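fwd from M.: "can u put these together and see what the complex looks like"

so here's what she sent:
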Amino acid sequence: YAYFDGEPRWDRSSPMILTYAFSPDHTIDYLSSADIRAVFERSFARWSSVIPVNFTEVDDYYSADIKIGWYRGDHGDGQPFDGVLGVLAHAFSPENGRLHLDGAEAWAVDFKEQKSKVAVDLESVATHEIGHILGLAHSAVKDAVMYPSLSPRTKKVDLRIDDVEGIQALYGSNPNFKYSSLYESDISSSRS
Amino acid sequence: RKLLDPSTELTADVRTNSNATWHSFMRFLDAEKGSQLRGMSELKKYFQRFGYLSIPNQNLTDSFDEDLESAVLQYQKNLGLPATGRLDSDTMKEITSPRCGVSDKKTRTAQKLHAKIH
């Protein structure tokens, strides 16, 4: 795992609660709002299960800590999107909170419904970008959620030991977290 | 008879994983320091974008120079690929894959502490 320069992290009183909201203007219309919300709820919950940080969705986009939206091309943050595939999404380090997804991608919540060959799993990308929002940079571990690339029609949502060790070094461990909840292969490779 | 390009097999493999822009980089497969290939400056822009090259745009040439070799090596190291310094098939497959737009630059890999019992 790796961090951004200076190892920035959210600095709030414990128990830490971060709010998130979806842009009312920059969204996609072919996935239902309920599906999108469910995907992000699960993605945030994965990180929440390993660190003492809770995430709550709020309606007020402008006051939320984490602002989520879909954008196309140049959208004013100096990091233009490039159409189908290429760059899928980006997010900013703490405590910026912006999480942007490329509106040109064929986002999928279920590959049985989204038949496109270039469909991209929303939950995998959301989980990865939340890692950036929290302060993790890209990992060299191919199986880690924080590895930078993701093939179309591929799902990679489970945090691996590299992700967990990285984020827990920043925020500490969730008292209810158990290593046994991770992949057995991860645990054995870590032991070795 | 049309001759097959040496990159054909790999090209087919990554076709569904790459977009048009990055897919065109497949023509640089197996290039190494000293190679001179038209359009190499576009690949340099890719490395520039993701934090591996800091050469100004106007100075980007089509030659596989020392700076590019060092960028390729750093890229391979950062992404857990074999460090060959060449645009080998593993490296090209990764370069043409869709990815997160966050730069790989300005990251610090955590060093694990090693304790000794005295």
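replying to her w this: The interface with chain B takes residues 1-5, 7, 79, 81-91, 117-118, 120, 125, 128-129, 132, 137-138, 140-142, 147-152, 166, 169 of chain A (CB under 8 Å).
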